[in-house]
Amino acid sequence: MRDLLSLTQQLVDGRVSRRGFMKTAAAYGAAAATLGAGGYARAAGNGALIGFSFPSFDAFRWPHDRHYFEKRADELGLRYIIQGANEDVATQDSQVDAMLSQGIKALVIIPVNVDAGKQIVERVKREAKIPIISYNYVIPSTAVDYWAGRDNYFVGELQARQALQEAKKGNWVIVSGPEGIDVARQKTEGALRVLKPHIDSGEIRIVSHQWHDAWSPEGALKQVEDALTSHNNNIQAVISNEDGMALGALRALAEQKLAGKVWLCGEDCWPEVAREIVAGRINMSAWTDLIQMGRVAADAAFALTHGQVPPGNDSITVSGRKIPGMRIGSLGVNRTTLPDFLKRTDWLKPADIGLKQG
Q1: Which domains does the chain have, with CATH numbers?
Q2: How far apart are CA 44 and CA 265, in angstroms?
Q3: CA distance 251 to 168
Q4: What's this model's pTM, rounded to 2 decimal places?
Q5: pLDDT tens-digit series, residues 60-84
Q6: Helix, strand, or coil (residue 179)
């Protein structure tokens, strides 16, 4: 194992070529592909060997995605190698190389960042010519054969519809993520589609809309503070693209003793936000059906390694090539639906968010 670790470090440091790494790593056996934090393999069975590269396992959701993928892969008889790259591009690159050295027949990848991911998948396609599935983020490359990602437009639509049912009309605020990221743009566009007739009629006035790099809670805090100041606390609703920013908005509302009085939502259903939903200070969050997303990725890997075309409900066009994929829907989680949500998923434990078991 020390030899394996040394070899991988030499690749990261540039002291051994990629070709030299793959040749030597192959001689070490299957363990070479499981190097790195969070890496492990299921090698039993006769199914195709699939590599799944995560950016890390530190984010709350990634262990859940891994679990849902594994469960379906086991049902299909697939073997798999799964690793997390500690949010480091070079580590992800070397881990993917190690997977290739073990003969993976398909790669599922969540890139550390999309630009670096594009380079990785294009190299993999040139060198190994295996099917590639882009997971959660849609890597804009003709090397990708299939993708599974959230229906971001639907998230915004879901939030806006719930707000229209529950919030007072009047002055509303929209808190968006980075303008340069399609996820933030699509969520915002989805919400505005639903709200447009009410905006046109004058029932709703969007008195503040800002984009925030890195999904900044501090940016959301300042935006909502400024909106409250400009309108003498006369704000009826805040729609936030994401839970971290919703928590930032909540801080601004709480400072003015408006927590629970101004309608507020986010997306991702973090434990902290679920606790605020239970407390009545946040009204809803949207949760992407990661159970389906994990299943879709495993099903696609199975199909592609058997020369089949996976089913899809959408496609993207990159350099004239249409790449099929699956847009995954989301669920609205509020105080009414939270108990059922907990029963249907293992996302949160009732005791962790202030609910009794049972």
Answers
A1: 2-144+290-328 (3.40.50.2300), 152-288+331-353 (3.40.50.2300)
A2: 44
A3: 20
A4: 0.80
A5: 899 999 999 999 999 999 999 999 9
A6: coil
